[in-house]
From TrEMBL:
<keyword id="KW-0808">Transferase</keyword>
<dbReference type="InterPro" id="IPR030374">
    <property type="entry name" value="PABS"/>
</dbReference>
<comment type="similarity">
    <text>Belongs to the spermidine/spermine synthase family.</text>
</comment>
<feature type="domain" description="PABS">
    <location>
        <begin position="123"/>
        <end position="390"/>
    </location>
</feature>
<dbReference type="InterPro" id="IPR029063">
    <property type="entry name" value="SAM-dependent_MTases_sf"/>
</dbReference>
<protein>
    <recommendedName>
        <fullName>PABS domain-containing protein</fullName>
    </recommendedName>
</protein>
<dbReference type="GO" id="GO:0016740">
    <property type="term" value="F:transferase activity"/>
</dbReference>
<feature type="active site" description="Proton acceptor">
    <location>
        <position position="297"/>
    </location>
</feature>
<keyword id="KW-0620">Polyamine biosynthesis</keyword>
<dbReference type="Pfam" id="PF01564">
    <property type="entry name" value="Spermine_synth"/>
</dbReference>
<dbReference type="GO" id="GO:0006596">
    <property type="term" value="P:polyamine biosynthetic process"/>
</dbReference>
Amino acid sequence: MALDVRIFETISPSRFISFTIPNPNSPSHLLRVAVLDSPIHSSDSSPRVAAMLVPKHRETDWIFSTESGHLQLLLNLPNISRLILISDDPEDLSNSPAADEILEQRLKPLVAALSPKALTKEEVPFLIYEDGVVSRVELERTVGPYVGEMVIEDVEIEIDEVTREFRRRLRFKRTPNLVQSDIKMVRTRGEEFEPQLTELVHPYLAPMVASLSLIGCDLKRGPKALCIGVGGGGLLSFLKLKLGFEVTGVEIDPEVLRIARRYFGLEERFASVHVGDGVDFLKRLDDGSKFDVLMVDLDSSDTVHGVSAPPVEFVAKDVLLAARAVLVPCGVLVINVIPLSKTFYEELKDVFRGVFAELYEIDVGNGENFVLIATVSFRDGNSGFTMGNLAPVVLKYVDAIQRI
C-alpha cells in the first residue's frame, strides 16, 4: 500500500511511522526511514524538524532500530518536534563519508516531503550522531524479569585524537541511549582483557564517591555502605577494593546480578547482594543494621517523557524516612538524579529538605546528571572519611560540592 505523504503535513504528538525505500546511491539495497513526532506539544507555529543518517554498522543498535531509542534521541534535541532517522542496509558495504554527503543531497527532496507544511520552504538540517564509539562487539543479549531485554557489549572508545580505551557496557532496551554500567577493560596478557575494578569511568560515579567526604564521623571502625541498584556492580567493587567498605547491595533483577558477576567482575567477597525491591528492603530492614552511607542509583522504568532518575516512588516521604532510619547519625544519603525538568528537580529537593538536616549537590557537568547528598545531622565541618588515596578525578568533585 502506497504511503500518503500528506499525513506528514502536521505534527501529531508521539506518532511513529517507518517504511523502506530504495537507496538512491545503491538501488539494490533499501533504506529504512523512521519518522517520530515529539510527545511534547509545542505552541510554536513553525515546528522544527531534523534528520539524521544512522552511523554505519549501528543500524541494528537499539538506539536507532527501536521506537524507544528514537524517542530518546528526539527528546535530547531541544525544540525539535520531528526527527527523521534514515538507516542503510547493513549488507551494503559501499558506505563512505563522501557517499554519505551524496546520499544527504539526494535525500533532501524526501526529507522536505516528510516535513510539516509550514516548513516546506526551509531546509531541514542533517545532524551527526557522535558518542565516541569506534567499534562494538556484542557479548550477550538476555532478558531479565524486571528490566526486560538487555545487551552486554565491548566497545572501543575514542577519548581524544591519540587515546582510545576499551570499555564493557550494559544497556537496557527500554532505555537504549542510557549506558547502565560502564567499566574500563585492561589488557592482562596476550589478547586477554579484564575489568579494571579500581577505576571509575561512568560519569556520575566519581561524584558519588566524592560525596563520602560529607560523612561527619570517624570511620576507623570500618565503614559500611548500602547500595540500592547494582547494575554491573562497578561502584560496589570500588567501595570494597579501593576504600575498604563493607558493602551491602540490593538489585531487583536476578539476571542483572548474574551479568554483573559474569561480565563485570563483581565477586561475592566484594559485597553481600540481596535480590529484591530496594524500597521494600529499606522498609523491612529491622535487624538494627546501620550504614555510614546509602547510595541510590536507580532510573525510572517510565520513559514516555525521557530518561529520568530516581523513580518517583523512591522519593516518597515514607521511603526517605526509612532511608534516614538505616543511617548512622553522621551518615549520608547519596543519590544519582536525572531530572525530567527544572520544576521536578526543585520539588525533589524540597522533599529531601523536609526529611534530612542538610542538602548538598554536585553538578556532574555532563548536562544530564546531578548528585544529591543529604545528611542525617547538621555537620560541624569535619570529615570522618579520608579521601587522600583517591584519584584526582574524584577529588575534583569534592571541591564541587555545594550546599543548597
